[in-house]
Amino acid sequence: MTTLRVILGDQLSHSLATLRDADPKQDVILMCEVWEEATYVRHHQQKIAFIFSAMRHFAAELSRRFQQVRYVELNDPANTGSFTGEVARAIVAHSIDRIVVTAAGEYRVQQMLDQWEQDFQLPVECRQDDRFLCDLATFAEWAGTKKQLRMEFFYRKMRQDHDCLMDGNQPIGGQWNFDADNRAPADAACRPPKPFQIKPDTITQAVLDLVEQQFGDHFGDLKPFHWGVTTKHAQQALAHFIQHALSNFGRYQDAMVQDEPWMYHAHIGLYLNCGLLLPLDCIRAAEAAFHAGQAPLNAVEGFIRQILGWREFVRGIYWLKMPSYAKANGLQAKRALPSLYWDGNTQMNCLKQCVQATQRHAYAHHIQRLMVLGNFALLIGVKPTELNAWFLSVYADAYEWVEMPNVSGMVLFADQGYLASKPYAAGGSYINKMSNYCQKCRYNVKQKNGPDACPFNYLYWFFLDQHRDQLQRNPRMAMMYRTFERMGAEKQDAVRQDSQLFLKALSFL
Ligand code: DLZ
Ligand code: SF4
Fold it and tell me: CB count, 10 Å around CB of 266?
């Protein structure tokens, strides 16, 4: 009996369910670089390089444990270009009797896996991805028939279930959430550490050459490439964060600084989401730092909430709501994604900064994604499908299960409040409060109308005005609508005129 064990590019964990009962001599492990995955959206060059190099390193590690690791490189002339094609070839080459795989991270790929039994007329065992801390059945049970889900309540349950930062059945520090302490703008004390970086080895060099050849026309800079590509690197990156950045992570979590893409963030999302790091290891490491007095509670709780709370929450929503979630467009947004998202060609300094960081690093930190890139798309009414495709392709950490609920739910309010209690819309003053971008901008953040006014200022009110029917009754928006009413007709007209002019110009760019 020969079992084929298939490992996908975001399943690079030695503890993966697929490998658990594997026979080191008899079984065949399959990993493959395939065109379909590299091009179903045009991924950032660094993202492809990262995944291919991490896959090659992982396969090399597996070869020490297993005798038959079948690794198909992209340029292999026999490569069929798809997972299904490569499984078919492996079945013939190794006389396979059964297939074992772990559930895919993306709906699209799971559909493929679900066909294999029929395609190949072989038993296929598709195992749960138990690297996640909340299994999908438990999440579905928690969500029940609720019309709206709130992360905060899910998170509390997860804290209790995993006995994380708990004092008996109460949260350590007497509060579940210290977000209110996590909104400091940058000040003189804000001096972020150098990010953790790894020099490319020969495997990564070969992958960089391949990506340059095959995907050189994709978005983003390929070099300098400094990401880690092994479990060991990823663990070092986590340790680097805990030692040098975690203590200030909370305080400056929402701060943005000109030409400073890294801040005190962890930059471990890409390792976590491809399996080089496990969520529970990150959580326990941060918890230990708190107990050792190395980091304050607001920072540790904030970090843990992202992983134990938010990450699991969005994944649960994705699987609960797919495939219809991909089509959600609750605010009927119709605009194509402006070209500035690809070339950074704009005089709005905040947007330019965030697009440039994305181009250079396949990374931008969460508040740049949310408050600048996401907020702008929300205000101008970008179609969810277009913004989803952009976020999915440009960030090295992005897979659809995590990207889509963040973009459609959190950023665009396309699910009409299933995930978030209100749209994350903000004017220029909020960006100015949390960053120093406005000081270098051609626009004036203090000005509300006219050619020099910060476009976020009038676009914000225009957005509210446009979506009055849907948003006015939202209790969290009521105060803003009252403020808009108090502006009076003249100012409201100026908002409409400036916005229409701006949007017209944008569509010609
Ligand atoms: C993102 C990605 C890319 C660019 N290339 C590959 C690949 O060639 N082979 C592979 O196994 N995985 C790749 N991935 C990650 C997959 O897209 C990811 O594993 C699935 O989308 C999860 O369902
Ligand atoms: Fe962005 Fe407006 Fe500030 Fe310019 S003035 S950086 S457009 S928020």
Answer: 25
